[in-house]
Design goal:
The chain is built from ten helices and 14 strands. It has 316 residues and is of the alpha/beta class. The protein has a domain of 66 residues: Alpha-Beta Plaits. The strands form three sheets. It has a six-stranded mixed beta sheet with strand order 6-7-8-3-9-10, with helices on both faces. It has a four-stranded antiparallel beta sheet with strand order 2-1-4-5. A four-stranded antiparallel beta sheet has the order 12-13-11-14, sandwiched between helices. A hairpin with a 2-residue loop joins strand 4 and strand 5.
Length: 316
């Protein structure tokens, strides 16, 4: 595969803060025209990785090529291709939607004669045309995210880096934001989005599961699920406060709560269902339901995290 198909080529990327490793030797090739999800919990390194990709941070070691350009050597040329939306995008609350758009158009150096047409295009794209004279601080959280996205599009970037854009917005706004992202992707824009929401993985062409600064896997989401060989059980019991007791089930790899049920993860062939029934009967815990289920993306992630912990934490 030739270099011209890559949006990013990342090799042995490392970043440290005060001696603490935040990004630990990440190597990835991200193809143009894809939606890439970087998925993981808070503190896993998602924001740091995005800031490295857009040149806000310099790596301790390793390299980043953006469409063949080494960011550290030609930062301005690389940034012309990028749009970056941080978690807390700096909209100006005392300016209207139109005034915010004008401010960022000037910031990106958009010629005045092109501003009106581009503004109308972005207002219609984002659905903010009816709110053009509303102060940004009076917009809903979802509308503020749409405005922030629109402000990043004046220079027509080919690559968008979005740091948790759907965090803290209602489900309808999340869906609308994703519709905008899919539309941009259909226009050829490469999108790299970080999120703590596992369900958003299904909207991505590939996902990078990040944990403690490492990418555990980087593959299409359905492929990750298909490769999972663990036995996954869904358990419902009368008293959901008994998690500590459940952790002692013999052969259990991992357990986590999902709504009113628990997901129990066992190695393939461990006969987890039989073991769980016997253990709970011995403990006089009444089972409401227990069944084997197909793995979800959450199951895949927690299984990989547990594997990483076992391999990196030395035995006592």
């Amino acid at each position: 595969m030739t270099n011209n198909v890559y949006a990013f080529q990342i090799k042995n990327l490392t970043k440290k803060f005060n001696g603490i490793t935040a990004i630990a030797g990440i190597t990835l090739n991200i193809e143009k025209g894809e939606i890439i999800g970087i998925i993981g919990p808070d503190g896993a390194g998602k924001t740091t990785l995005l800031r490295l990709l857009c040149g806000l941070y310099q790596p301790a070691s390793g390299s980043i090529l953006l469409e063949g350009i080494e960011i550290s050597k030609k930062p301005q040329k690389a940034k012309e291709k990028l749009g970056y939306m941080p978690q807390q995008f700096s909209l100006y609350g005392d300016l209207t939607v139109a005034e915010n758009l004008k401010f960022f158009a000037d910031l990106y150096g958009l010629p005045q004669q092109k501003f009106k047409a581009k503004k109308e295009e972005l207002l219609n794209f984002s659905g903010l045309a009816p709110f053009v004279n509303r102060l940004a601080r009076n917009l809903s959280g979802g509308m503020q995210k749409k405005l922030a996205l629109a402000c990043n599009l004046f220079h027509t970037p080919r690559i968008l880096l979005l740091d948790e854009p759907t965090t803290g917005v209602d489900p309808i706004s999340r869906q609308e934001l994703w519709q905008l992202l899919v539309y941009l992707n259909c226009q050829g824009v490469t999108i790299i989005i970080t999120t703590p929401y596992m369900d958003e993985s299904y909207k991505c062409h590939k996902v990078g599961l990040i944990y403690e600064g490492r990418i555990l896997r980087f593959k299409p989401p359905q492929k990750l699920i298909e490769e999972t060989k663990d036995e996954i059980l869904e358990l419902r019991i009368q008293d959901i406060r008994l998690r500590k007791v459940l952790k002692e089930i013999p052969g259990l790899k991992n357990i986590y709560a999902l709504g009113e049920s628990f997901h129990l993860i066992f190695e393939a062939g461990a006969e987890g269902e039989k073991t769980t029934e016997a253990y709970l009967k011995k403990k006089n815990i009444q089972i409401k339901s227990l069944k084997r289920i197909k793995p979800s993306f959450e199951d895949v992630f927690f299984s990989l995290v547990e594997k990483e912990r076992r391999e990196t934490v030395p035995p006592l």
